[in-house]
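S2.1 Query sequence (Purine nucleoside phosphorylase)
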Amino acid sequence: MCNTDCCSNPKGKAGTKTAINSTNSSDIIPTPESLLYPYEVIEEIADFITKGSGMRPKIGIICGSGLGSLADIIQDPKIFEYEKIPNFPVSTVEGHAGRLVVGTLEGATVMAMQGRFHFYEGYPLAKCSMPVRVMKLCGVEYLFATNAAGGINPRFAVGDIMLMHDHVNMLGFAGNSPLQGPNDPRFGPRFPALVNSYNKDLINKAIEIGKAMGIESNIHVGVYSCLGGPNYETIAELKALRMMGVDAVGMSTVHEVITARHCDMKVFAFSLITNKCATEYSDKKDDEANHDEVMAVAKNRQKACCELVSRLIREIHMASA
Ligand SMILES: O=P(O)(O)O[C@H]1O[C@H](CO)[C@@H](O)[C@H]1O
Ligand SMILES: Nc1nc2[nH]cnc2c(=O)[nH]1
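Output structure tokens follow.
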């Protein structure tokens, strides 16, 4: 039972738009961010997708920059353009098509975001990760989040895949969170723990799959950090991130993972290393990151990424069949 002021509807009955609006404003200061997407609005979007597709997908996939082909391998796809989905934002970044694809992959029901939302596009974090809550209400139990990232760990090469086993939330350090504002307990608790955010079984299975694919030397396990972007990092920032134990850096994923763990989804995430980050002033000038290179590397490695994702989904599906 909810014992906070933020929810007058502890049992989470659909159709009652009171969860967020009943906030006692003398106790907390609701931010516009927290009021954007009340439970019922998320529920309406989820209904639109499940009714329109005739499916309740079990696995959600977020395609990183240039990795949209992860959604192209979905069978019997029902495609929803973002602009046709009620209350959905639009994708503004090259390499993010702006479509939701629902169908089957290796026998499992899946929904994939071909295009994610980033903080630097001007969307608040709660809006960036709102589709994760839509996935949850569609029935999704597993989130697969992928991204393109710069490799800070000197052992990483361009084209390698880093399985995320942890993150450093730089936007969180700065006081920003997708969970900011009144908490709706129908999604999850006020203070979610994040220690075991990245599912260890899925990481281990992915390592085995990497071996079976013959790419074990290109697979690493490491720590990702999300910065606000859209600029790439300075050398001093990259040095600082490395000292903090960060292996790869990007501008996404962390807020999606926080939102997914808040609503108790199992998370698997990986970074495709699309560029090596310069961490010394003596590093070559051509170590500067650029989005064309990011997209080109992602395109080159999409086959391996698709195979990794397909095989892992197959294992999940077989285990639950
Ligand atoms: O994280 P994804 O969406 O894969 O994209 C990464 O690549 C873009 C920069 O080239 C940024 O959007 C960064 O976050
Ligand atoms: N922040 C950041 N995002 C990226 N996305 C792809 N490469 C990079 C990078 O080097 N830095």
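DSSP finds ten helices and nine strands in the chain. The radius of gyration is 19 Å.
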